Amino acid sequence: MGKRNSQRKNAAMFESDDDNSSVSSSSTTRSDRVPVLGTEEVQLDKDSLLEQALDALYEKRGSTREKALASIIEAFNSSLQHEFLEKKFATLLHQCLNSVKRGSSKEISLASHAIGLLALTVGPGDNAREILEESITPLSQAFKSVSDSLKISALLECLAIITFVGGNDSEETERSMQIMWQVVHPKLGSNVVASKPSAAVITAVVSAWSFLLTTMDGFSLNPKHWQESISYLSSLLDKDDRSVRIAAGEALALIFEIGSVEKFCGEAKSSNDGSIQGSKPREGFSHIQGLKGKIINQVKNLSAEAGGRGSAKKDLNSQRNLFRDILEFFEDGYCPEISVKIGGESLQTSSWSQLIQLNFLKRFLGGGFVKHMQENEFLHDVFGFTPKKKHLLDDEHRISSAEKRMYRSPNSVLNKARTQLLNKQRMLSEGRNAGHFAVNVGDEEV
Fold for domain 33-196? Predict the structure, then answer.
């Protein structure tokens, strides 16, 4: 099919030039005027507002805690609260976790979002490790006790973000991916009777799972965890809900992009020692080719769908465009190219991994996306993006975006060498944390 002109340079514009900071300034003004406990509107500095909101998380009334969490989220969206977190990081984290454990559906959703923002704000390091270690059990338990789709989606996003920032190795990432997978795809033999997940929950699971898969390379995946996952995702392409089909399509493109496809499609047959007994190599290859042929046919149909399964024309066009890109990738190996304008600089992606990371973080940050992309150094590293102001300051010290992307790509020679070195260091130190965000977030190649 040849490389289409539509290799699509997406015209998404997120303008927030230096002389036009309407996104952050309007939010800040509104935040500064929202009292959490009082009834009078009083101009408060940001730290005072956050202190007041933090105090409100101790209140017995759930609606008061919900208002406080909403104020905290707004404050973290409008400004990176580093000074506040230097003093109150642990307190805020544990109060948010208390809300996850005891709160209403709305409170759990708000608290989950706040924890994710907390992780993105502190960036990789000891604090991000603490967020992941302290949150993993409460989040896992919350999945078992809730059924509301909005609440489950918020928990999934939170788990994805805190693992993305705070995870140190592939085992930790796969642990979170397994927790997600169990929400819609419980293990055989489980005593838990799972209710049929809604389309919204399936979409949220596949999106969060794919987001974490972008940080992995095919070599580090444990095949016993993901047998038949390609078949499952292929079945989702036939579902009536368009969001489910789109999420599944992106996940399948990503799986084929990162390689080691056999780890996702074999039939799991465990031996007595727990290892996976795969089929013969030739049979395995034929199985993979058969699956890929089936998926290509499904993708062709979805790229030319006339409508009927979903009403909005805009959504239908988005689906057609996406599946045309997926089809081109399967047939010719080309990935979609996206360019997003942020404050006068272009953020560009050229792989499925990058595109999935960008879309996930845009959805999670919402109105705070521009602010974080301009000021959050962790996200600068993730995307190899240098905002306009930083360009002027860093010209002498900056490596190119292409070099950064090459270094971070899980498929790059540099990154594989780095991964091997870090694995060796972990073995020598017997699991002792070396203090920097080793393999997994270093792998967050976009």
Answer: Leucine-rich Repeat Variant (1.25.10)
Any idea what DSSP says for residue 39?
S
- Report the candidate in 275, 293, 206, 278 with the shortest Cα–Cα distance to residue 245: 206
- Identify whether the C-beta of residue 339 lies closer than 8 Å to the C-beta of residue 346: yes
Q: Residue 377: exposed, middle, or buried by beta-carbon count in 10 A (0-12, 13-18, 19+)?
A: exposed
Task: Give me 106's structure tokens.
Answer: 């709305």
> Diameter of the chain by CA atoms?
74
Q: Which of 233-237, 248-252, 392-396 has the lowest mean pLDDT?
A: 392-396
CB 160 within 8 A of CB 432: no
Pairwise CA distance, residues 32 & 47, whole Å: 10
Beta carbons of 56 and 36 less than 8 angstroms apart: yes
Centre a 10 Å sphere on the Cβ of residue 9 and count the other Cβ atoms it contains.
Answer: 13
Q: How far apart (Å, rounded) are the C-alpha atoms in residues 195 and 198?
A: 9
- The answer to whether the CB of 257 falls within 8 A of the CB of 291 is no
Q: How far apart are CA 435 and CA 433, in angstroms?
A: 5
pTM above 0.85, yes or no: no
Segment 4-22, tens digit of pLDDT? 444 444 434 444 443 333 3
